[in-house]
Amino acid sequence: MQKKFLALSFIEGAAVMAAELCGAKLLAPIYGSSLYVWASVLGITLVALAGGYFFGGLITEKSKLHNRNLFFILIAASLFIILMPVISHYLVPRISYMSFLPAVVVSTFTLLFFPVFFLGATSPLFIILQTDETNTAGRVSGTVYAVSTVGGIFATFFCGFYLIPETGLNVTLLSFGILLFIGSILVFKIFRATQFLLPAAFLYLNLQFTFKPSSDLMVSDSILGHLQVQDVADINGDSVRILKINNIIQTEMNLKSKKSVSGYISLLDSLIAKQTTPSKALVLGLGGGLTANLLVEKNYNVTGVEFDERIIKASEKYFFLNNSVVSLCEDARYYLNHCEQKFDLVLVDVFKAEEQPSHVLTSESLERLKINLNDSAVVYINWHGYTNPSLGQGTAILYNTLKNAGFKVQLTAFSDNEDYRNVIFVCSLTNVNFVKENFGIDDKLMETSMVNSDNNPLLEKYNAKANKVWRKNYLRFYQNQ
Fold first, then answer.
1. Which string of DSSP letters, residue by residue, matches 384-448?
2. Rounded CA separation 174/222 (Å)
3. Is residue 78 included in any domain, yes or no?
4. Cβ-based neighbours of 106, under 8 Å, separated by 6 or more
5. CATH number for the domain that contains residue 46
6. Is the Cβ–Cβ distance between 154 and 18 less than 8 Å?
7. How far is 223 from 174, CA to CA, in rounded Å?
8. I want to staple 391 with a disulfide (CB 3.0 to 4.6 A). Which of 48, 246, 368, 466 is the partner?
């Protein structure tokens, strides 16, 4: 077998995974990273690969010009990869005006189908070009698919751990597209001036926004999402600093007071009394650090656990995180599994955009959390605002999971408008003692027999509809999309 074709097969496999990873993350600022989005990305990827394999096999029978066919298919794949950032910038936001689910599917198809289709079509051609006899077909096809898969494995780790965080999604796609384009030209030794016109045009379009100077204080792409820190003016003209993940605000701070402008944190402030003696608090989901700062003011020694290291850096540099807060970059569930401390207060605020990592709030995780609580400890859980039967099934499941774990639970909110509020679960193993705010939640709305567990993680499924509605409302009313 020819090493040059195996090298191209390696690059092809790497390009498939780079396109899939980056494609999902390019969709995230508009549609999030929910089950709907990933199902669409995986489904369209598989459809494109299946179609590509069939098309590649078909043209091996219809035409004997295998070298030429493979060259043009690789060039087409590289061009569509280079075009992906352009499509996500100019076309996907316009598609998002459709109803949510059709918009997700159409956007994913537009972004991913053609690059993955042409990449998939190369495999049959790589195989037939290196198969001299019938009895070698199995070994050749196995080798080609193995090399392509190894390329995909390499790209997954390289893009996820280094290239995307260091260079961003657009540069990652441009790099793989250009690598595939140049590799194809060098292997097939086809040098024509005209074949550089389309890549040059697509690169020019990318240059209009990819390398455009940003007014953001911080911008970072990673597998965990697109992060931005910005200074904006509110409706009163005051300067507000915001932290966004996938275009959704996670933290809002008035720059003059250095306090949160969120109704959720105002509610939390009213629920938590100032301690007369120093107490210990654990914050799972540090965000911009404003809740941790609030607890420090209330005489708590605070440990903050945050899975995204970029958010910890942003909280320290841009949101004035109190120096006394101990910040740990770990998954919340992993921390609980290994924690040997006991706390007087635990705040669970693990939202990423509209998503709630359900593994942190299973019955097994809550049983483990109980070990880390002092007798009179109170647990506060930040949650979306939906409690009605049509959208509040996830809320009811969490309520029942907490009750089954032995917690006494009450719910409160700062508004009666479900679309624009957060609900706070207030939980304790003894008594839940707090002054109910204007909008306490009727416990009868929480009737269900379902429990979220490690073996049966229900929250993502039953929150999917609420998350979809929440993001649609957010983008419509806050982002004007």
1. ES--STTT-HHHHHHHHHHHHTT-EEEEEES-S-GGG-EEEEEEESS-------TEEPPGGGG--
2. 16
3. yes
4. 95, 98
5. 1.20.1250
6. no
7. 17
8. 466
Q: Which of 432, 390, 286, 267 has the alpha carbon at shortest distance from 347?
A: 286
Residue 347 sits at φ, ψ, to 5 deg, of -110, 120
pTM of the model: 0.80
Question: For residue 390, what are the domain limits?
Answer: 260-477
Q: Are 434 and 412 in contact (CB under 8 A)?
A: yes
How far apart are alpha carbons 298 and 205 in whole angstroms? 52
Angle between helices 66-90 and 3-31 (to 10 degrees): 20
**CATH number (domain holding residue 347):** 3.40.50.150
Is 419 within 8 Å of 481 (Cβ atoms)?
no
Instruction: State the total domains in the chain.
Output: 2
Q: Looking at the structure, do residues 193 and 291 belong to the same domain, yes or no?
A: no
Mark whether 202 and 270 lie in a shared domain.
no
8 Å CB contact between 218 and 242: no
Cα 206 vs. chain centroid, distance in angstroms?
Answer: 23
Q: Which three-class secondary structure state does DSSP give residue 453?
A: coil
Instruction: Dig out the tokens for 438 from the structure.
Output: 């204007």
Question: Which candidate, 251, 273, 450, 444, places its Cα nearest to that of 362?
Answer: 450
One digit per residue, the tens of pLDDT, for the chain of length 481 reads 688 999 999 999 999 999 999 999 899 888 877 778 889 999 999 999 999 999 999 998 887 788 899 999 999 999 999 999 999 988 998 898 887 789 899 999 999 999 999 999 999 999 988 887 666 778 888 999 999 999 999 999 999 888 988 888 999 999 999 999 999 999 998 877 677 888 888 888 888 777 777 789 998 888 788 899 999 988 888 899 999 988 888 899 999 999 999 888 999 998 999 999 999 999 999 999 999 999 999 999 999 999 999 999 999 999 999 999 999 999 999 999 999 999 999 999 987 766 778 889 999 999 999 999 999 999 999 998 888 888 889 999 999 999 999 999 988 888 888 887 889 999 999 876 665 555 667 777 778 889 999 999 888 888 888 887 877 777 665 555 4
Same domain, 329 and 456: yes
Domain-embedded: residue 106? yes
- Same-domain check for residues 176 and 288: no
Task: State how far Cα 148 lies from the chain centre.
Answer: 26
> Are residues 121 and 53 in contact, defined by beta-carbon separation less than 8 angstroms?
yes
142 and 38 fall within a common domain: yes
